């Protein structure tokens, strides 16, 4: 989920080929059930806020429409 948030953040800022993304925090992480080989996991990432080059995201992972994990993630981009 954190990798997806970082990739989306870089893309939205137009920085696909510049700098790095650094994971800063993972808050409120909940793992609701295991994801096993063969499952197709859908990651939903929503940017909650941004201040400068630091963004906070709400992330949800789903398998077959059922939430299997969630977390709030902060990342710093373009360094």
From TrEMBL:
<dbReference type="GO" id="GO:0016829">
    <property type="term" value="F:lyase activity"/>
</dbReference>
<dbReference type="InterPro" id="IPR029069">
    <property type="entry name" value="HotDog_dom_sf"/>
</dbReference>
<protein>
    <submittedName>
        <fullName>Uncharacterized protein</fullName>
    </submittedName>
</protein>
<dbReference type="InterPro" id="IPR013114">
    <property type="entry name" value="FabA_FabZ"/>
</dbReference>
<dbReference type="Pfam" id="PF07977">
    <property type="entry name" value="FabA"/>
</dbReference>
<keyword id="KW-0456">Lyase</keyword>
